[in-house]
């Protein structure tokens, strides 16, 4: 008898497609939570009771306000509603880009922001005569071998961390042998080959995209992923909060590109 799929609600924060440097965020985050509809609804009621904001829709930034610090600590803490029932996958975007560059050029390269920005531009464009290409190769070394490597990389893969994050969520939650059904916040970019890659993932029983406002589980995932990204980004920028970073650690997927 086939087991009943494990329903996991997911959302992301910091997604800017293949733009990994020079954007609004330095960290990408993806979260999955394992809560029933009733449990998620009760969590939202409790958050609203504790925050006491007149806002119609609550978002992560409500929890991140200084005056709601105790609510945030409760939400992430061992007595909170998602402790032990959630996974967060974090990606330091600049580090992801630097790793890709070192794969192509060599581990000895020490890329600065200018080189990384040029590299990001050349991988994002499909126009091989784009001025960005000339800028990058002028800095990295204009060789036929490097141009061929960059071309193959550009043609074969996307730097957008969203699909790898979803695939990792499926792998994480299905590790116990249960098939996973994902309920994910709407993502217009997930179609065609990108969606097919997700749907063919081992361990996936199905995936449904919903408006987060219609599913309390996805709303809870939205809260978690939003605060996780901000805490991680603050830590990355050297102004992290030791207590909040410590509370986040139990949620962070070991495959994350963040430390």
UniProtKB/TrEMBL annotation:
It comes from the Bacteria. Pfam families: DUF3800 (PF12686). This is NAD-dependent protein deacetylase of SIR2 family. It comes from Amycolatopsis japonica. The lineage of its organism: Bacteria, Bacillati, Actinomycetota, Actinomycetes, Pseudonocardiales.
